[in-house]
Amino acid sequence: MLARANAIVGAAALLLGGCAGGEGTSESATSTGSASDSNSASATATTTGAGTMGTSGETSGSGGSSGGGATTTTGGGPTTSGGPTSGGSTTDAPTTGGGEACVDDHRVVAFVANWQECPTPAQMAQWSHAVVAFAVTYTWTPNGNVCDESCTIGQVPGCNGKSLAELAADLHAAGVEVLLSFGGAGMGGLWEGTCGQMTKCWDHCLDKTQGLADALVSLVADNDLDGIDLDYEYCLHDAAHVDFVGDLTAALRSGLDALPGDRKLLSHAPMDSELEAGDPYFGIVDAHASELDFLMPQYYNGGLSPFEPAGLAAIEKHYRALVDGPFGGDASKMVFGYCIEPGCNPVATQPAAATVAETVSGWYPNDGGIFFWAHPNEYDAWFSTPFRALYDQLFCP
């Protein structure tokens, strides 16, 4: 999946220029831009807070899949200074199943904001998976999201100008697997206040688990998708909510397994602060680990920064508890999350993020790779390219 020719060509170019201390990354990463106009230094990256994953309300609260309520932020991606360095503890390529780790395990997963411009060929060439965000049960309005009390999933667009099926076809043509994410911050986010004050779209779904699972599985089948991601960022404040997330996971696994063809993927993308050992969400992962193909903790906005020594040390403990606990040592099920959207804390930059990824591969050479939120701020593939180059360097020499 990740060894497709165009990705290797791009990775090799970066390694030749970047890992030797040269200038392998695109010049346009130093200017503002959008996913559709990487040549204009004055272009802006439109970032609605729609279903942003853990933006703590710092961007516009809820554009969602309706595409409305966009706020425009000027300033695109951080300056990069070439590909990942080769220092650290993993410079020798580890033995990982005959050199197949980068094919099966080391994912580069992009969240695609489906109310924004479509991803470009340059971006898709570096990705292994795309997660289209979001399928939701609300309607966006300028005054806040209006929850559908029947918990009905609205129409899910692919990206501006394309249907979900058309976007999936484009991504498949680039060798990218496609998941649909259900939920997001617009359904109800932890930073909105106490559990009694936040948006309550999830509350209308608690007794509709099977219907939700059936609807999501139908979206997979009807649009030729490869799986479902669950992005639940709401309070797990009582047994009903804990049971709902667990039961929905089990129902989705059962429904996806009933579809013909290859196994469909099922992932979760919780906030890191909800995944401490002993927390309800940790217990959900532990109980349903065999049903998940991978877990994508958001290592941002939860109080820990992987770009600070103390934060990375705390994250290592957190990451190891999940790998060695629920996943029984199988780190390929862990996908490390970054955010490149202005307003996140921290906002990831390169080459710092690739250096963290190299450190994670030192903890577990079979780690499951990375994901990032979100594609509109990743023009010219400035963020994903160094990861693809790093993994090809370490695991596919």
Write a compact overview of the structure shown.
With 397 residues, the protein is an alpha/beta fold. 29% of the residues lie in helices and 14% in strands.
Q: Can you put this structure into words, describing what you see?
A:
By secondary structure, this protein is of the alpha/beta class. It has one domain: Alpha-Beta Barrel (TIM Barrel). Helices cover 29% and strands 14% of the residues. It is built from ten helices and 14 strands. The strands form four sheets. The chain has an eight-stranded parallel beta sheet. Strands 1-2 form a two-stranded antiparallel sheet. Strands 5-6 form a two-stranded antiparallel sheet. β7 and β8 form a beta hairpin. The longest helix is centred in the middle third of the chain and has 19 residues, at 239-257. The model is unreliable at 1-52 and 54-104 (pLDDT under 50).
What is the CATH class name? Answer: Alpha Beta
Q: Let me know the CATH homologous superfamily.
A: Glycosidases
Largest sheet: 8 strands, parallel
Q: Which structural class should the secondary elements be placed in?
A: alpha/beta
Number of strands: 14
Q: SSE order, as H and E?
A: HEEHEHEEEEEHEHEHEHEHEHEH
